[in-house]
Amino acid sequence: MDWNSHMANTAYLNKVVDARVLALAEKGFPLEEFVRLRLGVVIMKDELEYKREVKWMEEIDITFSLAGLAPDGSRFKVQNEVRRTNGELAARISSTGGFMDLDARKLVAPPPAVLEAYRSLPRTQDYVELPSSVKPRP
């Protein structure tokens, strides 16, 4: 909570990350599978838009949608909407990221099954195709 008894800005980010992890686990990719694949998710940019306050102990619902994806899946943009139980939009969080090979420490295209899990997410109305994060080898 912040000084005004509202949900703090960092709490929004923590909650949407939890929602993303749970959604991917439901698609067959729990955190342990990412560890086994030596694949990490790297967020390079977060944008938060606040619409309504969320008060102490107020229940919320969080959506998880795909706002953009590179053809090889190496870069993505996802969007979460935080809604109060009455349906009012409290916040919209857009995050741009990619996948990292945890051993090479560089951005990579994900394995086909991970890419398919992302492709199966609901899409936002403003979905766009993104450029690849993978640099071609000379």
- The named CATH superfamily: Hotdog Thioesterase
Which sequence of SSEs, written as H and E, runs from N to C? HHEEEEEEHE
CATH topology: Thiol Ester Dehydrase, Chain A
Secondary structure class reads alpha+beta
Tally of contiguous helical segments: 3
Taken together, the total number of domains comes to 1
For the record, give the distance between the C-alpha atoms at the N and C termini, rounded to a whole number.
Answer: 51 Å
- Gross morphology is elongated
- Assess the beta-strand content as a share of residues: 35-45%
- What's the β-strand tally? 7
Which CATH architecture?
Roll
Biggest pleated-sheet summary? 7 strands, mixed
The average pLDDT is: 93
Low-pLDDT runs: none
The Rg value, from CA coordinates, equals 16 Å
Helical content, roughly?
10-25%
Which CATH class applies here?
Alpha Beta
